[in-house]
Design goal:
By secondary structure, the chain is an alpha/beta fold. It has 17 helices and 15 strands. Among the domains are: about 190 residues, 3-Layer(aba) Sandwich (Rossmann fold); about 35 residues, no CATH class.
């Protein structure tokens, strides 16, 4: 409930701090004293439109802070937590309005948007006034109130579950159909790519293996080329010449002719040269043999290198074509085959999902029909209950209708397949119409009171504000209004602006609003009244400007009756 409000520099209010209690609190005062300013100030804290005209003359800004202590399980706590705002048990909504009309909003001293302020405010306070009826005019609120009045929670749970299942099945079906359409568009690509990659048959790790093999074969080829070049240098270019070996042998023969016969050749200076030629011939023969063995032992395979490079280049070309890496090719091919398989099996899958969706829709329709039947039964009971409340409120000629209208399938939702609308006809023969369009201000306020008497237990809003719900009535009707306000206040906190002494006497707490001059400036003040002061205020409301003893006696009678 609302426990306190702090107002600074709003129109005629300089500085005002008020506390509120549970039950029925009445606000009275002379016309023009500033009761509407007090409600406008509360409206600011609840997210109403900010205007520069609300800032007190000569001030830079106006501010209003409203303090609430909702029930521990009230949904406003979850709303604020979703926005990162923690609140243990107390919520402070604050609004600051600058003289240029701009404003800032806060919840528990953390900045919030005006939209969030309005959402939180609507959960905490409902205003029913001469010119605005917040909450009850909202079809979603009417649906919730009707359901709370006589619809089993199990039916509401069932429709929510059925709606979720149907939505999920529709989503799955749409995804399957989209996949088939995409696959159909890619059919030619899939067929060609799968054929091409299947023929290539890429294997995991193949690129690394081919690169290693290619490097090994390239090294072997370079060795073979070097051995061949070395051997070619030892091979005579002119077939008529014997090559290096023949030249060495010819040189040796020429030197041998210089040697004398016998042992004398040992000491001949030609002998070392001849020995060197013979060693060279032996070394050359050894080199030729070694090169021949190397050539025979070498495993250079030009064809194998060509095949390896062709395979490696083919893999890399395929990867570039599909904008992936070579190691990804096997999985890419597997994915293509899966897409192709989905295309081939997609029709059967869609048919299965269509059956599931049809079953889910049927379940939703069944749940919606059960909910609609329960709502119609609840609506009949509600109409009877509201009708009993209308006559004492001088609305005996009015007719209240809780209409249950079917919705187009496109408008079905988590709350069912029908729309709930509260309608009113204020005169016989009149076609019932929307609440805000048919009833006058006073009629609408009293109708809202009747609705609240019957439906108060179904609302999440802990505080109701009525602005002159008793306008234009008196006597027994005013007494009836006071009685019903007291009944509503047994369930929720009620703040009431009233000019009726019969209604004011029913208040558990009484505030009087007055206007005074302070240093030449008009200023609105609000004070809590004691029992004696309440007696005098109610007597003033009964008698007017001059309070008589008869008026005081009548006030005593009204207070005693409560």
């Amino acid at each position: 409930m609302l426990t306190a409000i702090s107002i600074r520099d709003v129109v005629l209010i300089d500085r005002l701090d008020l506390s509120f209690s549970a039950g029925l609190t009445v606000l009275t005062g002379e016309t023009g004293a500033g009761k509407s300013i007090l409600l406008d100030s509360l409206g600011l804290a609840l997210g109403a439109r900010a205007e520069s005209g609300l800032v007190r003359n000569g001030c830079d800004q106006a501010s209003v802070a409203a303090v609430f202590v909702p029930a521990a399980d009230h949904p406003v706590f979850a709303l604020l937590r979703d926005q990162g705002i923690e609140a243990d048990d107390e919520i402070v909504l604050r609004r600051v309005v600058l003289k240029d009309g701009k404003s800032r909003a806060f919840a528990n001293d953390q900045p919030i948007s005006a939209g969030l302020l309005r959402r939180a405010g609507a959960m905490l306070v409902e205003v029913q006034g001469q010119h605005e009826q917040m909450g009850l005019a909202d079809p979603a609120v009417q649906t919730r109130l009707l359901d709370a009045y006589g619809v089993k929670p199990a039916l509401q749970t069932a429709i929510a579950v059925a709606w979720r299942d149907w939505r999920n099945s529709l989503t799955a079906l749409a995804a399957a159909r989209a996949a088939i359409e995409a696959a159909e568009r890619d059919r030619d690509f899939l067929d060609h790519a799968i054929t091409e990659l299947s023929a290539l048959a890429p294997q995991p790790g193949e690129e690394d293996q081919l690169a290693i093999e290619r490097q090994r074969l390239q090294q072997g080829e370079r060795r073979a080329e070097a051995i061949a070049a070395a051997m070619s240098e030892l091979t005579p270019r002119d077939r008529r010449s014997g090559g290096p070996a023949a030249a060495l042998r010819a040189g040796a023969r020429a030197l041998q002719r210089l040697l004398p016969p016998g042992d004398a050749a040992v000491d001949n200076p030609v002998t070392p040269a001849l020995a060197a030629l013979e060693r060279a011939e032996e070394a050359l023969a050894e080199a030729e043999g070694l090169l021949a063995r190397l050539a025979n032992d070498h495993d250079a395979d030009p064809r194998r290198l060509e095949q390896t490079e062709e395979r490696l280049f083919a893999l890399r070309a395929a990867a570039r074509k599909h904008a992936i890496q070579v190691p990804e090719l096997p999985q890419f091919l597997a994915n293509l085959r899966m897409r192709q398989g989905a295309l081939e099996n997609g029709t059967a899958k869609v048919e299965d999902l269509e059956r599931q969706m049809g079953a889910a829709r049927s379940a939703y329709v069944a749940a919606a029909e059960a909910l609609t039947a329960a709502r119609k039964h609840s609506a009949t009971r509600l109409e009877v209950a509201i009708s009993r409340e209308l006559a004492p409120l001088r609305l005996e000629r009015a007719k209240f209708v809780a209409e249950i209208a079917p919705l187009d399938e496109a408008s079905w939702g988590v709350q069912g397949a029908d729309a709930v609308r509260f309608l009113i006809a204020t005169n016989p023969g009149q076609t019932p119409g929307l609440l805000a369009k048919v009833a006058s201000g006073g009629e609408l306020s009293r109708l809202m009171l009747a609705l609240k008497v019957v439906l108060a237990g179904g609302s999440i809003v802990p505080t109701l504000v009525f602005d002159e719900v008793d306008s234009g009535i008196g006597g027994a009707t005013a007494a009836a209004v006071g009685d019903r306000l007291a009944r509503v206040a047994a369930d929720v906190q009620v703040l009431l602006v009233t000019h009726s002494p019969q209604v004011a006497a029913r208040g558990q707490s009484h505030l009087v609003v007055s206007k005074t001059n302070v240093k030449g400036r008009a200023e609105t003040r609000v004070v809590h009244l004691s029992l004696d002061a309440r007696r005098e205020e109610i007597a003033r409301m009964l008698a007017g400007e001059t309070v008589t003893e008869q008026a005081r006696a009548a006030a005593d009678s009204l207070l005693a009756a409560t």
